[in-house]
Amino acid sequence: MSDPELELLRQRAARGDSDAVDELIEQAAERGDMAELRSLAASGSRDAADQLVELAAERNDLDELRRLAAGGNQDAADVLAEIDSEADPSGS
């Protein structure tokens, strides 16, 4: 997707076009664009937040997962707990 196309998509999303929001999320996830996903999640998109957690987990980005968990994202908290349990299988 070209930069002008992406900008038009952002403009449509800003006007409340849910299809444009969905497309932006898909494009951002494909590009690994965490900043775009953060912005969309901050605007209230649960799908963007889900993609952000998934991408952070794939990248083992513990700082991002912690930030999301601290903001109340239960999925991020669950991923962190899973990572912790894998790091310390004895549970101690």
Description:
The longest helix has 14 residues, at 18-31. The protein is mostly helical. The chain has one domain (3-87). It is 77% helix and 0% strand. The protein has helices spanning 3-14, 18-31, 34-42, 46-58, 62-70, 74-87.
Distinctive features:
6 helices; single chain; 92 residues; mainly alpha
Q: How do the strands and helices of this protein lay out in sequence?
A:
Elements lengths: L2 H12 L3 H14 L2 H9 L3 H13 L3 H9 L3 H14 L5
Are there runs of 5+ residues with pLDDT below 50, and where?
A: none
Instruction: Please estimate the helix content.
Output: over 70%
Q: How many discrete structural domains?
A: 1
* Main sheet record: none
Give a short synopsis of this structure.
The chain has 92 residues and is mainly α.
